[in-house]
Amino acid sequence: MKSSFTEQFIPLVLTIATFVGLTTLLYGFLSFLNLFPGQDVLLKLHLRDIVVGLTIYLKTSVDFAIFIGNLMRENIGWKKRIAIEFGTALGNAMGTLFILSIWDFFKDVPLLMVIMIVLASFVLLRMAEESFEELAPKIPTTIKRTFYSASSVLRAINKTTNPLLHQIAPRVKITKTGPLSWTRLTLFACTIPFILGLDDFAGYIPLFSIINVFGFATGVFLGHMLLNITLFLSPQKTTALVKTPLILLVGGLAFIGIAFWGLYEASWLLFKIFFHWA
User: Fold this and answer.
1) 73 near 235, Cβ under 8 Å?
2) How do the domains of the chain map onto residue ranges?
3) Torsion sign, CA atoms 178, 181, 182, 185
4) How far apart are CA 135 and CA 246, in angstroms?
5) 42, 214 contact by CB (below 8 A)
6) pTM for the complete prediction?
7) Count of CB atoms within 10 A of residue 82's CB?
8) pLDDT in tens, 33-66
């Protein structure tokens, strides 16, 4: 009973408290932005806006889910769970607040969006490579040659971006970190979701003209909390699941697909910028 209380109840309460705290921070941050000239953000919660934010987040959270699952696999115990839950929630929230501040002051900063999208795409490609490295020993002999050819292309791409990514996560793999101290785990769990959160939330900017930003962002925070709770309901099953060949393959392909879609979006934005300036 005591073990169950420690392993589940305390982290669950802290996860909910983190959501409440970050939502309060969001309210205060938007109130601060409203002090500046321009269109004020409506500080009211409507169920529709929350549901839209929650739904969109959960539909696009495969990168977060696999990232969290791999951190769980390498860092076991309720104290490490708190570090993962708090770090990923904080990173996701900080990315959201950063995008909201850019949107409030400038409304549209395409060059900055390009940089954020490209950086997130590089992170996803590195995550894909690491998934494929773990999958390699489990690949059937009949398709090994094709698999290794595709993996070599991915490694070549990542070789050019690794110097940049090492500034973000020095000497640490993104999907296979190994055991980390509580402080280092919290910081690392915050860093990658911050980058991925920048990319995700930047893609939501066109919605801000038709929905309430406060409610939408609250829905995104709620979605992240529910994702954390779901993944940690049965840590053993979650950590076993992220090691299966199917999840490694599907996750790797999903990372590649999302990354190249992001690079396509960034290229299109650059084209529009160039065309407009021309």
Assistant:
1) no
2) 2-277
3) negative
4) 9
5) yes
6) 0.73
7) 18
8) 888 876 677 888 889 889 888 887 776 677 777 7
